Amino acid sequence: MLLHSTKYDGSLHYRYAVREVERTAWRLVTYSSPGQAVESHRGPRTGTRNLLSFFVLDQPFVAHIGWDAAWQPLYVYVDISTATSWTADTVGYIDLDLDVIQSHGASAVVLDDEDEFDDRRVRWSYPEPLVQECWAAVAQVRSHFAQGLRPFSAAMFDWRPGAALTC
């Protein structure tokens, strides 16, 4: 399966192979291991992290749980995005350049790339309803972190390939 995310103007954000962990009518969970070839807006590279990603239909975000190559926990990283879609071969979304991050072991939840969001909102003429949806999504994700909901909790760092998901 291929993860293919774009920017609002249609340009490449990320494209790389992922393995399906779980698929339901409303949620897809994928895993990517270190060593994967990654195409990105910054150029090609090789992935260095273990990454478990949660795509939920009709939700304006994608949550990524990250570990380094030795399975040391790194972060829960949330892309504010358009709703995701998937087929048998591809999962996709539009990244809207606004991220909510909690590093492992930290209590603070950080809003990242607000400057990029503001720049691209103007450059690519994000419609005002989309801008409002982005800020509502940030509030929703912050609430999920505050409540310790999975996958927005440190409990997710116990997962390993082949294990059942507990959320």
How would you explain this protein's 3D organization?
The protein is α+β, with helices and mostly antiparallel strands. It has one domain (2-155): FomD barrel-like fold, CATH 2.40.380. Helices cover 18% and strands 42% of the residues. It contains two helices and twelve strands. It has helices at residues 114-123, 128-147; strands spanning 2-6, 12-17, 19-23, 27-32, 37-40, 45-46, 50-56, 61-67, 73-81, 85-86, 90-103, 110-112. Strands 1, 2, 3, 4, 5, 6, 7, 8, 9, 10, 11 and 12 form a twelve-stranded mixed beta sheet that branches. The radius of gyration is 15 Å and the shape is globular.
CATH topology: FomD barrel-like fold
Order of helices and strands: EEEEEEEEEEEEHH
Compute the separation of the termini in Å: 22 Å
Q: Major beta sheet, specifics?
A: 12 strands, mixed
**CATH architectural grouping:** Beta Barrel
The total tally of domains equals 1
What's the β-strand tally? 12
Instruction: Report the radius of gyration as a whole number of Å.
Output: 15 Å
Number of helices: 2
Q: In percent, how helical is the residue content?
A: 10-25%
Name the structural class.
alpha+beta
Please identify which CATH superfamily we are dealing with.
Answer: FomD-like
> Any idea what the shape is?
globular
Overall mean confidence score, pLDDT: 95
- Strand content range: 35-45%
Poorly predicted regions: none
Which secondary structure elements does this structure contain, and how are they paired or packed?
Elements: E1 2-6, E2 12-17, E3 19-23, E4 27-32, E5 37-40, E6 45-46, E7 50-56, E8 61-67, E9 73-81, E10 85-86, E11 90-103, E12 110-112, H1 114-123, H2 128-147
